[in-house]
Task: structure prediction
Amino acid sequence: MSIIAARKENTTTAAQPAAKAPVREVAGTAPVATRGQVDIANVRKSFGATEVLKGVSLSVPPGGVAVIVGPSGSGKSTLLRTINHLEKVDGGYITIDGELVGYEVRGNKLHELREKDILKQRTHIGMVFQSFNLFPHLTALENVIEAPIVAQKRSKAEARKRGLELLDRVGLKDRADAYPRQLSGGQQQRVAIARALALDPKILLFDEPTSALDPELVNEVLDVIRELAKSGTTLIVVTHEMGFARDVADTVVFMDQGQIVESGTPQDIFANPREERTRSFFSKVIEPAFNI
Ligand SMILES: Nc1ncnc2c1ncn2[C@@H]1O[C@H](COP(=O)(O)OP(=O)(O)O)[C@@H](O)[C@H]1O
Ligand SMILES: [Mg+2]
Result:
């Protein structure tokens, strides 16, 4: 069977996933991040006749922070959605700590996982969207503890204790009993971040987490993400906040037209872009006074 025919049945020729990330301990220091290695290998995705991901490869090490920037329509959201298998891929594969996302190898083919296994796998991958997507009829705390109770069968008492710790971490312990409509956009987004952390994910994905916020509320959300970046959680963040990208990213990834045009340190990408497309994009989005 050809690869294209195989794909139609959700199978394809298997590529070997990367080995599991090693466990490392460094004596006398804070634990080094040992989980959350993301490997995206030659991922392709089409909607109808339009190929929106044209062979994207990207690796993020445990505890790494990758910030993806690029024009609207370049495929950033689609790429994030393939990482937790909200979108199936048409080619290539993604692994997290060596485990294939959305597929398993049987024979020498990739077969899509059953829905139950996809949902289980997704609990390792937290996602925060532009529109906070909180349940309006649940309080902040209830929003945070819903998944641990339903998906992980945690006791209510245990989930509440952990939920309050997480709300404290995002600066909202005193608003635990507030409903989303009683919270500002920035506060709602911070609840959404606490909710994403509640399942103790290996990686966290952010899709333009501050784009729906009034300008004065952007920083309170970025500050929470900055703290997460320091804590050793692997983060992949799509944003237009270039100052944040410069300060927080280990790797800045510039995407255009379904491809990674280039990636590198903030210094590489902002100060010394190799590609004309990158230069042209930044000349439109970055203020002249932006300091590298
Ligand atoms: N579900 C879908 N069906 C059809 N086309 C889609 C779908 N989702 C995204 N697209 C198209 O894919 C391209 C990339 O979109 P997207 O990943 O949302 O880009 P970005 O997040 O960089 O703005 C766009 O042309 C968009 O219209
Ligand atoms: Mg998008």
Summary: The pocket of magnesium ion (ligand 2) is lined by residues 76-77, 207 (CB under 6 Å). The longest strand covers residues 50-60. The chain is about 35% helix and 25% strand. Residues 12 and 179 are 46 Å apart (CA to CA).
